[in-house]
Amino acid sequence: MGKKHRRHHLKSGLEGRIQPGAPPGTLTRDPHAEKTKIDVIAYSADKFLEQEVTDLSIIPNLLKEYSIVWINVDGLSAIDKIEQIAHLFQLHPLAIEDVVNCQQRPKVEIYGKSQFIVSRMISLNAHLEVEQLSIFLGDKYVVSFQEIPGDCLNPLRDRLRKGYGQMRSQGSDQLAYGILDAVVDGYFPVLEKYGEMLEDLEEEILTNPSRHTIALMHDLKRNLLLIRRAVWPMRETVNELIRDESPLISKDTRVYLRDTYDHVIRVMDFIETYRELCSDLMDVYLSSVSNRTNEVMKVLTIIATIFIPPTFIAGVYGMNFNPAKSPWNMPELDWYFGYPLSLLLMASITVGMLMYLFKSGWLGQAIKTPMEEAKSKQEADHEHHA
Predict the structure, then answer these.
(1) 3 band by pLDDT with thresholds 50, 70 and 90
(2) DSSP secondary structure string, 301-321?
(3) pLDDT at 68 over 90
(4) Residues 58-80: what's their mean pLDDT?
(5) Contact criterion met (CB below 8 Å) for 109 and 97
(6) Gap between the terminal Cα atoms of the chain
(7) Residue 172 has what DSSP assignment?
(8) Between these two residues, 340 and 378, which has the higher pLDDT value?
(9) Among the CATH numbers 1.20.140.10, 3.30.460.20, 3.90.25.10, 3.90.1300.10, which is that of 1-15+25-168?
(10) How are the residues of the chain apportioned to helix, strand and coil, as percentages rounded to the nearest 5?
């Protein structure tokens, strides 16, 4: 399935849901779900294993041999595999239902001996992708479910492979923290790209606004709203992990989670700032278009003002009154220099109108944009104080 189709599906949130009235915990396969791929990372302080798994029967042996086992599931089409994992780790059916129905808000819930965490990953390639990441935290394991292949967790995997830091000698709560922290840190590159887009849009709006510009602005504003919906509940989710007592999360890990909480707050500040900037750019766009319209109307008004008097004179002398019938019937038609005088009159009126318009400031003075007016005012104030 193409990214564009997948993006539309992720936004709709209606396809693949359970039928109304179905028993709690019913798993319904999403027809657009990606093919399931299961990877396992198992490690202790002195050993490490990473491999793709097709036979889940090896998992109990890994739990005995290694201190921590991380099972990552990409794609949710294989309902039977998901049910096997749920049975193997005794995961609650309601939590598994939330895993398969991927339109959950970020949240934290405790089911028996495991803690269920829902978060949302975002990525920006050809389109904005918003993906649910479901995490089960247990005593010696972490199980994560992703909608589509590809994530922001490769730096975490590299740290585990190379043994950087102390994570391989710590518990599963540190691994869960590492996953959440990587998800939150993955928001920053996306927002940085949107910041660059906003700068380009601002320059385009001030120099050459067009319908394409307004379309890009609406698309950017809509995507920022999607990001806000994904990130906003993350603040409360991380705060719950810090605030609520849980035997699965140590006090030391809560200290690190406070740093993740701080990152979420920073992300929210960026999002709100960019959304306000989008609204401001919309106002600047409308002002710029209005100024350009005023320039066009100004030019047309000047042209009409200049040509109305000559047109009036030409219209008067175009009337077919016969001077032979009456001395009052346009005697100028019998003048020897009547035609040159009429042209001279038209030219004199045109020149006089141009001089009047120039003296009044209509000619040679372009209408300034709001940004240019503010800059001119700032320079004038600076010169005044100087």
Answers:
(1) very low
(2) HHHHHHHHHHHHHHHHTTS--
(3) yes
(4) 92
(5) no
(6) 65
(7) H
(8) 340
(9) 3.30.460.20
(10) 60, 15, 30
